[in-house]
Amino acid sequence: MAIAIVKENIESQDLTPKEIVQQLDRFIIGQAAAKRAVAVALRMRWRRSHLPKEARDEITPKNLILKGPTGVGKTEIARRLAKLVGAPFVKVEATKYTEVGYVGRDVESMIRDLVEVAVRMVRERKNAEVAQKASAAVERQIVNAVVFAKKKQAVDVPEDLLRQQTIEEYRAGKLDNFTIEIDIVDRPPAMDGMAGGMPPGMDMQIGIDIGNIFGAIMPKRSRKRTMSVAQAREILIADESERLVDKDSLAAEAVSLAEQNGIIFIDEIDKIGSAGGGSGPEVSREGVQRDILPIVEGCTVQTKYGAIKTDYILFIAAGAFHISRIQDLIPELQGRFPIRVDLNSLTKDDFYKILTVPENALTRQYTDLLRVDNVNLKFEDEALKMLAELAEQENETAENLGARRLHNIMEVLLEDVSFKASNKSPVKDVVINKKFVSDNMANLIKKTDLRKYVL
């Protein structure tokens, strides 16, 4: 059943590679080669789902390595890709892991994190399925509590009439701020793994959720709490939804979803590359690679929701590779990432498009944010081109931060406007033109110009 649900999820996102690229273009500028590569990889997963089981089990994803400087869209491409198809997605940093889990995290934790994401996704869907039933049950509890509280003040009103009035007021949202006393189930704190005295990273090896074990043995206790109707509704709906959803079914579907649709983005993989030979840190970095290898090759990892096979998870690795090279990774790991794509540094034309084209462009974000404080921003085209050129120059003469450089520039540009803005002031129009940019970015422009003459 779980496999069928996963296949249904893939079917619902029947996007061709061209359509996937078009969707990515809405948020990410440039990097056509990387978009094409991930689009094809995703479509291959869809094609695999249509094969007979015997053939499907023999086909594993073609993992990718994205090579390029920071801030050019590596992470965003992978994140948007997962969002397009509703796939569980986690981003991990290779430098957070240490050999066999000592001091840092053990590599299997990335799989457990993926399963946790899948559990949240499946739980949200199942909660939506039982929402109507849960809401009806919660309405009865809250109405009873409100009627009980009102009866103390309206002793002469018949209870049936009082109840009917309360139901109508509750459904109209008029009771959200009404204070009631209601029974709330106490939730014991979750304790994953085994407590005390275990090396970092080893505490999750067993995959046992002690909180759930004790929760099943010990009877649930509740206590009276005083709160508003709105607060009570939120807590009670969560409790009622949890009661209505079958936990075994949820766990099985989540594991299958992570297993068949999961995407893991391993960032900074270049930082664990080693030229070979040597000792100390060199050996440790190679040890992390060898720990990651079986995860990418395909193995079974125990989680508190059940065992998961990693064979069909799509792995996307990324790194700047300024100091090390892809060839510095151990050959076995290189072989598990057959698709390699170079991402380009951003130009002033790219920066201009980043400021104007995406649906979540920085200019739109700042316009929406400052409108809350009665400031209407208007960006002129020449000003945006000037900002794009400044971003390119800063990346060339200082550290190359990619698109993140625009965040720094926009903060400096609008710092004074943001500081003075207030919703208590009348509406104010602010035009961002070339003069505004020159006046507010004078120090940065001067610093950038001086760097050109530094040898």
Can you walk through the features of this model?
The structure is a single chain. With 455 residues, the protein is α/β, with parallel strands linked by helices. The chain has three domains: 2-121 and 254-342, Rossmann fold, CATH 3.40.50.300; 125-252, no CATH class; 348-449, Helicase, Ruva Protein, domain 3, CATH 1.10.8. 52% of the residues lie in helices and 12% in strands. The protein has 19 helices and eleven strands. It has helices spanning 2-11, 17-25, 32-48, 53-56, 74-85, 109-129, 131-151, 159-171, 210-217, 229-244, 247-261, 281-297, 331-335, 348-356, 362-371, 381-397, 404-420, 434-440, 442-451, and strands at 64-67, 89-93, 179-185, 222-228, 263-267, 300-303, 306-309, 314-319, 339-342, 375-379, 428-432. A five-stranded parallel β-sheet has the order 2-5-8-1-9, sandwiched between helices. A hairpin with a 2-residue loop joins β6 (300-303) and β7 (306-309). α7 packs across α8 (159-171) and α14 (348-356) packs across α16. The protein is flat, with a radius of gyration of 28 Å.
Question: What key phrases describe this protein's structure?
Answer:
single chain; 455 residues; alpha/beta; Rossmann fold; Helicase, Ruva Protein, domain 3; 3 domains; 5-stranded parallel beta sheet; disordered N terminus
Question: How would you concisely characterize the structure shown here?
Answer:
The protein has 455 residues and is an alpha/beta fold.
Strand/helix succession: HHHHEHEHHHEHEHHEHEEEHEHHEHHEHH
CATH topology (fold) name of the largest domain? Rossmann fold
DSSP, total strands: 11
Number of domains: 3
Helix fraction, binned, reads 40-55%
Q: Assign the CATH superfamily of the largest domain.
A: P-loop containing nucleotide triphosphate hydrolases
Identify the overall geometry. Answer: flat
What is the CATH architecture descriptor of the largest domain?
Answer: 3-Layer(aba) Sandwich
Number of helices: 19
Radius of gyration: 28 Å
- What's the N-to-C terminus distance? 66 Å
State the secondary-structure class: alpha/beta
Mean pLDDT across the residues is 83
Strand content: 5-15%
Low-confidence stretches: 1-12, 191-208
- The CATH class label of the largest domain is Alpha Beta
Main β sheet profile:
5 strands, parallel
Question: What order do the strands of the largest sheet run in, or round the barrel if closed?
Answer: 2-5-8-1-9
